[in-house]
Amino acid sequence: MTWTLPNVLTTLRLMAAPGVAVMFLYFHRPAADFLALALFLGAAITDFFDGFLARLWGQETRFGAMLDPIADKAMVVIALLIVVGYSGMNPWLILPATVILFREVFVSGLREFLGAYAGLLKVTKLAKWKTTAQMVSIAVLFLASGLETLHLHIYQRMDPAAYDAALRAGPDDWNGLWLAASGGWYAGLFGLGLIWVAAALTLATGVDYFRKSMPYLRDEVR
Fold it and tell me: How far, in Å, CA of 63 to CA of 137, rounded?
């Protein structure tokens, strides 16, 4: 295996996946949320550059082709577990997360079963949009979680009267309390909508891969 820059970026993205969870082990919230967001965004950016640079420089390798989807899935799965867990097990978030996790496990098992025929399940443009939607929605949900926690911390340290006054004055002076409260609410709503879009794209790509593999799942391959 050659340690090209694209392969290094892919490996770093794989290592960043558990690092997102580690942020919540060593840091208190909301710092953990924002640090996890920064790490997740950095890893997501490498998802574009490793493939782009590999094609640009003619450095596409079997190792990179193998590791890239694994790194993507690890990032999405671990981050989703964290987001769902800290959401208070919101059922509106659990359902799309379940669809995404189910599809990823199903397609991975399908590729393993197909073996030599797994090349038939090539990454499509829709699958790339699916990955993008997943990562953007998770990043927005991390932002929402951090802002909501920040809002809670500010609330716990303020006099109720001062808190109400700051919220009422927020649209005029854009104070930190109002920004955290309104930003967290809008980001949460937007992130929830995006994760449903990501779940729909994820389901569509799963159905597409299953349809393509059907001829190879019969008892006799034609």
Answer: 28
Q: Please name the residue that has the structure tokens 């499509």.
A: 124
Q: Which fold has domain 5-216?
A: Four Helix Bundle (Hemerythrin (Met), subunit A) (1.20.120)
Phi, psi (rounded to 5 degrees) for 47: -65, -30
Position 222 pLDDT exceeds 60: no
Q: For the whole prediction, is pTM greater than 0.70?
A: yes
Domain ranges of the chain: 5-216
Mean pLDDT of the chain: 83
Which of left, alpha, beta for 183 (phi over 0: left; psi -120 to 50: alpha)?
A: alpha
Task: Compute the C-alpha angle 109/5/129, nearest 5°.
Answer: 45
